[in-house]
Amino acid sequence: METLIIELKPKKFTKLTQNKKENKPIIHSYTLFSAILSSYKKIFGEKDFNDSKDYFKELVLTSAFPKIKADKEIFFLPYPKGKHLFDIKNKDDRTLMKKLKKISFIDFEIIKEWVEKYNKEEEKIQINQENIKGLFYAKKSVEIPFNRITELKTMIYRMPKVEKDKLKNNELFEKDVFVFNENFSFYFLIQVPKEIKSEIKKVIETLEGIGGKRSSGYGYFEIKEIKNEELIKFLTKTSNDENLMLVNSVPLIEELEPLSYTIVEFGGFFDITNKNPKQAKPQIFYLEEGSFIKNKGKITNEEKEFRGNKLFIYKKPWVI
C-alpha cells in the first residue's frame, strides 16, 4: 500500500453539503470513494472494474479537509469532538466560549503538538482569540489571511430546493454553495494497493462533479499530488487507546463505548445503466469526522445488493 496526498483546488462554485444541517467546507470520504469508483468504471470499463473489486475493498482514504496557502501551507484537521484542547482562563467569557463552540477545523501543527506534548487533562494549549476565524483555528506563529476564510464562510449562495416526502407536505430547504478564495483548496490522503496504483492515480486526475450538479458547472477542481512526509507520517500513525476519525466510518458495535462521537446519515442517488433511471442509495449512518473510537476497526468496504444492483459502500476507518 502506498500513501498519497491529493490536493483539490476548486475552479468554480462547489456544492459540498450532504444534508440540510451541514454548511462546513469538507468533502466526505463517502463522496470521494463513490466518485473514484464511478470514474474508474467509466475510464477502464466494466471488465477491468469487476477484476479489481478485491482491491477496491482495500482502498483507504480520508475525507478532504481545508488547506490554506499563506506564508506556508496550512493543513486543517477536524476538531476532536468532546476534547478540551485549550487552557481557558475565564470560562465566563461568553464571547470566547461561543467562538470555541464554532470551531470545526484546527491547524495540523496544533493537533500534532496536542498529541505529542499535551493530551492530558492537566495540560492544555494556550488559546489566542485573534486566531479564531469562524470555523477555523490556526497556530499563533503563522500569519494567515484569515479574513479570506471569513469571506469564504459568508459568501454562500442559497439555493432553494424542494424536499419530497410521502409522509409530509412538500417543504422548502436550502443547500449551500461555497465560493472559494484562490488560496483555498482541499486535500485528502489515500492508501492504494500497488496493483491498481497507476489506474487510481489516472482516475483521481479526472475526478469531476464532486458534490453533484456537474452539468451546471459545479464540483470541478484542479487536481495534483503533493508531497508532505511529516503529514503522512503523523496521519498514518495509530494509537492503541483512543483514535481520532478522519473519515465517515461504520464502527464495530464493541467500539461504540461512551467516548466522543457524532452520528450522521448519508444517502443520495446513483446512476446504473441507460436502461435504469437514477436511483436512491440506501440510507447509512456513519460516525462523523473528528469522532473518537477505541480501536482501528475491522470493517472493510462492502459490496451490497440493492434493488437488483451492486453497490460499493465505503466503511473503512482512517484514524490517528
Protein topology:
Layout: E1 2-10, E2 14-15, H1 29-51, H2 53-56, E3 60-61, E4 65-69, E5 73-78, E6 86-87, H3 94-102, E7 105-107, H4 108-117, E8 125-126, E9 132-133, E10 136-137, H5 146-154, E11 156-163, E12 171-178, E13 184-192, H6 197-205, E14 221-226, H7 229-235, E15 243-244, E16 263-266, E17 269-270, E18 279-280, E19 284-287, E20 292-293, E21 302-306, E22 309-313
Helix pairs in contact: 1-6
What can you see in these coordinates?
This protein has one domain. Strands 1, 3, 4, 5, 7, 9, 10, 13 and 14 form a nine-stranded mixed β-sheet that branches. Strands 2-12-11 form a three-stranded antiparallel β-sheet. The chain has helices at 29-51, 53-56, 94-102, 108-117, 146-154, 197-205, 229-235, and strands at 2-10, 14-15, 60-61, 65-69, 73-78, 86-87, 105-107, 125-126, 132-133, 136-137, 156-163, 171-178, 184-192, 221-226, 243-244, 263-266, 269-270, 279-280, 284-287, 292-293, 302-306, 309-313. The protein has 320 residues and is of the alpha+beta class. Helix 1 crosses helix 6. A hairpin with a 7-residue loop joins strand 11 (156-163) and strand 12 (171-178). The radius of gyration is 20 Å and the shape is globular. Mean pLDDT is 71; it is low at 143-158 and 166-171. Helix content is 22%, strand content 29%.
